Amino acid sequence: MLAIRLKRIGRKHRPYYRLVVSDSRNRPGGKNVDEVGHYDPLPDPSELKVDLQRVDYWLARGARPSAQVARLIDITRKNAQV
Fold first, then answer.
1. pLDDT on residue 27
2. What is the CATH number of the domain that holds 69?
3. pLDDT single digits (tens) 2-53
4. Which is it for the CA torsion 53, 59, 41, 11, positive or negative?
5. pTM of the model
6. Which domain holds residue 16?
């Protein structure tokens, strides 16, 4: 089963995340199928970039987002409507 989840790539005390599609059996830092965005939580306001077309593509193919990723996707969709 495919999962859309956060992959931490930042250094110590400086988190930075990529939103990736990967097999749910792989470890979170392991191989990924596709990268659909990134999230930097430290700047004010935090930086969030999500490719909604790719997210919709993977959701249509059965990928399940984690709880945090689902929240970030909802934020991106709300900001895209404004």
1. 85
2. 3.30.1320.10
3. 999 999 999 999 999 999 999 999 887 888 999 999 999 999 999 999 999 9
4. negative
5. 0.89
6. 2-81
Residue 4 and residue 17 in contact, taking contact as beta carbons nearer than 8 Å: no
Helix orientation angle between 52-60 and 67-81, rounded to the nearest 10 degrees: 130
Question: In sequence order, which residues have a C-beta less than 8 Å from that of residue 74 and are 6 or more positions away?
Answer: none
On whether the CB atoms of residues 27 and 49 are closer than 8 A, the answer is: no
* Cα–Cα dist 66/69, whole Å: 5
Per the listing, tokens 């709880």 go with 67
Q: How would DSSP label each residue in 46-70? A: PEEEE-HHHHHHHHHTT-EE-HHHH
Q: Which two three-digit tokens encode residue 54? A: 């790719």
Alpha carbons 59 and 71: distance in angstroms, whole number: 15
Task: Specify the number of domains making up the chain.
Answer: 1
